[in-house]
Amino acid sequence: MPELRKDPLSLRWVIIATERAKRPSDFRPEPEAKSGGFCPFCAGNEDKTPPEIAAYRERGSERNGAGWRVRVVPNKFPALQIEGSLNKKADGIYDWMQGVGAHEVIIESPQHVTSYAGLPEPAVQEIFWMYRDRLLDLKRDRRLKYGMLFKNVGLSAGASLEHTHSQLIVTPIVPRTVNFKISSCREYYRYHDRCLVCDMVQQELAQRSRVVMETEEMVAFEPYAPRFPFETWVMPKAHASHFENMQRKGIEELARTMKEVLLRLQKALNDPPYNYMVYTAPFDAQEMEEYHWHIEIIPRLTRVAGFEWGTGFYINPVPPESAAAYLRETAV
Amino acid sequence: MPELRKDPLSLRWVIIATERAKRPSDFRPEPEAKSGGFCPFCAGNEDKTPPEIAAYRERGSERNGAGWRVRVVPNKFPALQIEGSLNKKADGIYDWMQGVGAHEVIIESPQHVTSYAGLPEPAVQEIFWMYRDRLLDLKRDRRLKYGMLFKNVGLSAGASLEHTHSQLIVTPIVPRTVNFKISSCREYYRYHDRCLVCDMVQQELAQRSRVVMETEEMVAFEPYAPRFPFETWVMPKAHASHFENMQRKGIEELARTMKEVLLRLQKALNDPPYNYMVYTAPFDAQEMEEYHWHIEIIPRLTRVAGFEWGTGFYINPVPPESAAAYLRETAV
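^ inputs. structure came back:
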């Protein structure tokens, strides 16, 4: 069973994956890139993954057989395990609990494509419907506190398989990054009586210099203080705290926006490695006046070194205004 | 002039290095490894760096000439610039200031070696004396608030030159990572009336399972909740908030400890890429009862992906107790 341990200085939780513990000799400076060869996520190889948790399927097709369009399976090497109780305890001055949670993989297409940006819009919409379904299902478990949907693309962004997929890790604690965002939002709200992110959206739409694209309900822009070159955020224009409460029109526009933003990034940066993270509200939160869900896309073009690790300051050689202009001009 | 911009959601400051702004085409997925060839840090090439700020030199040798043992120069591509005033201002709802600060390189040896762990102890002591000198000098500048000493070794840890060196970036704001640590320490102190880090040291020395080595004054251990495999922390056993207030015996023992810990890491992990960061107190703080300086060494063996970026949670496949046992058993 994995363990959860808290560092009292940084308030950071760490998952110690004792069962897949490695020896020092297991670490090689750069793992080999894998491309081609056998892919367990392709249609026809359904028996090479753990049994499916959910899928959108053709009528009459069978669970764990072909005929699916989006398919969710447990991660074969899960960071957290769904069975068991937390058994929270002190370990001297430290804090400990069992590694209870969920770790799922959302396989976004039965075809071996490396990005969903090239798929038709209805196929992309189904990916976001599935994100929503999985959050709504898992948040019924009262042991669990937060669901982080994320995507790793490219070896240096941490992807081990190239077939287009996302992951969902659900933790029994609200992660500190999310807590920090919520606390900034609360402080702003207390002072201004307005949502911080709504104010950011207003300023971006008025200034326009950092906007990449917009639809009626969604906007994509380069944030004012991006950690990374071409970091791009996507969010609803109107206030909404929970990703999983989105309705049909929101999902349609989000799919269109994400597809176009990823196409622009892929084109402009020659298929860069990237991650994205979906920041929804914690599981036990009701609709929140002060928090606003959003997606952060981070192309991994620069290396993070001691200064960034040490301070949380980032050095970014591309002003977001230049990045936005470049992305807008990229032909797609 | 670089700009400092604050992200209001994460409270993270970002340095937008507008003067070395890059075009998208400047980003290549993996820069080439450089080894061999011309090295501007080697003795004899003093005119290939900006003019020196400080050096420990043989009697009679000349500034910017040969005869130095440790030499400090401005970074050729500084993230921050020492001239100018901050000109703090609002940019709509955002916060902005000029990129005033310092960015120095500490060249740790005139010989082309890639690690100081192989140097004699007196040479290593001089590196730490120089760290101390530079902090003491720069903290007299009232515009500046914090000095982060750090080291990048290996391409994937962000080093662009292999000749052994450290860097010092001094910022006009206390970085959020440091603020978070101080605030955890304060909260602990308020409750327990004891320093959190002193309590960690006591528990580690009593349990011993995570201790790598100790001297009379210093201890090196794997933290209870390490982000990374073989993450190792080094600190004084007795309470001390300011690195730069260390005395002779402390520096001697720190040099011996760092030399041996780095040798063990290099041997155990086959010369891994790594970073280390020196966490001293903020410049304007007097001796603090609740904060305790420390060094964090992070070998870069695993990749950081969307989950870690998104949550601040880390997944570590090596329990710190196993890592410590392995490092203790490594013959050096």
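The mean pLDDT of chain B is 94. Helices of chain B lie at 121-138, 176-192, 196-207, 248-269, 306-311, 320-329.
thumbs up if we can close this ticket
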